[in-house]
Amino acid sequence: MAKGWDNDPSLFAGLVEQEVGKKLRIISMALLTEIVQRSPVDTGRFRNNNVVSIGSADYSQREGEDKTGTATIQRGSAVIANGKPYSVIYIQNNLPYAESLENGHSQQAPAGLYGIAFHGVTQAYK
Questions:
Q1: pLDDT tens, residue by residue, 39-64
Q2: Pick from 17, 75, 80, 109: most CB atoms within 10 A?
Q3: How distant is the alpha carbon of residue 86 from its chain centre?
Q4: Who's near 109: CB < 8 A, 6+ residues apart?
Q5: What are the backbone dihedrals phi and psi of residue 78, each rounded to the nearest 5 degrees, phi first?
């Protein structure tokens, strides 16, 4: 004869949802950090324009520079911290030359940066 559940399955579902949210934030932070660190730096404008948003793309451009990437990562981290389970988190750069840099038009990032960062992070979290 079959036995009933020892614990309510909805409790398990809540734990799974919490873990999904946690992994989403961890992987998003790893990806942001990798992108920012791989960003070629001349003035720091490109690095400063790696923008993070949740739920929809943010097509804005930021003023100023961030040669170290610290402020960009802190700004992105604050957004990522609000990520809920199953959220879609966008990390993008809207400067006119961002696509050229992704296509390898930089001696500092000859293979681009977003694609390489995505590949590296997905391999790390298989």
A1: 999 999 999 999 999 999 999 999 99
A2: 80
A3: 14
A4: 38, 39, 40, 101
A5: -65, -35
